[in-house]
Amino acid sequence: MTDPTLIRRCHTVFPGHRARRPAEIYAAMAAWCEANDVEHDVYGSGALIEAFEKKIAALLGFEAAVFCISGTMTQVTALRLASQDRGGAPVALHPTSHIFVHERSNHELLGHFAALRTGDPQRPFTASDLAAIPDRLGAVGLELPMREIGGQVPSWNELEAIKAHCKARGVHLHMDGARLWEAAAGYGKPVAEITSGFDSVYVSLYKGVGGLGGAMLAGSHDFVARASEWFRRQGGNVIHRSPYVVAAAMQFDARLKAMPEYFSRTQFLYEALRAHPQIRVNPARPAANMLHLHLPVSRERALAIRDALAEEHGIWLFNRVSHGVLPETSWFELYVGDNLLAASDEQVRAALERFAAALRAPA
Known about the structure:
Blueprint: H1 3-8, E1 12-13, H2 22-36, H3 47-60, E2 64-68, H4 71-85, E3 91-93, H5 98-101, H6 106-109, E4 115-117, H7 127-131, E5 139-143, H8 156-169, E6 172-177, H9 180-187, H10 191-195, E7 200-204, E8 215-219, H11 221-233, H12 242-273, E9 280-282, E10 290-295, H13 299-313, E11 315-316, E12 322-323, E13 330-335, H14 338-342, H15 345-360
Parallel strand pairs: 1-11, 3-4, 3-5, 5-6, 6-7
Antiparallel strand pairs: 2-8, 7-8, 9-10, 10-13, 12-13
Helix pairs in contact: 2-12, 4-11, 9-12, 13-15
């Protein structure tokens, strides 16, 4: 039985938002287009996309924003321009940066920029970490929240210190804001207050927002215009962006409004997990609506437990699971969204009880 089939049979689902099949998504998009009299853009020129770009720019506190077909193209382009403007000086990135972990060395193989790994792999880097770099930097890339380490973020004071450090040295500060809306709920501050002091920000249109794909890059008019031209040069000039923009725009306000609820539900889950100390949680306290749960069983055993709970009890606890650093351990990422909001407190506690019992049972 496939994972999607198993999930559809479950009454208690922990990760993310309810999965919608293509026909349902496209029907909702068609109805929204009809209700809002949407026309296709042509190579990024059109009423809907231009209005949405202005909306994102205003929310983030920047002069302009532009759509890009992928976050991968968005980020390396922004950082390359920043490095180029400063004589090709290197870019400082956390060891778990998406660019290092998921982008297959594109920044090196395509000659975008030189990158320095900065800070401890298990903690957000600090202004002191940046100050310890002897080289002149062209840019600093900071992910908020930091997905690969459980959604950790710098403290507010540390974040302000990083901003001040970069400003004093003329270093371009770029934010990987793929999950910025989630971080805003954790910080309890408006996104524009968080982004203030950054020179550019990338946000995703599909992760927490739930669109089909795509991204936005925000910055000054000049910086955004230059990046937009480089998106074209790199093959990002698709004739119609409208499917991606519609899929994001039609649910954007509702998703952002729900972020504090998702964060509150994450805090509830974190407290409920205290009853099961064999399940270790990262970070020490939730900073966004995501957690990493570390298990005292192998990856293969974790998958077997997951599938058995789904088939026998209608409980789906996680999607992917990874090998842990230590033998016979594993971990998974849990993004808290509509599914966990829909489950009652009793359902959540009962599911955790069954999960913990299965972890304790002999293989």
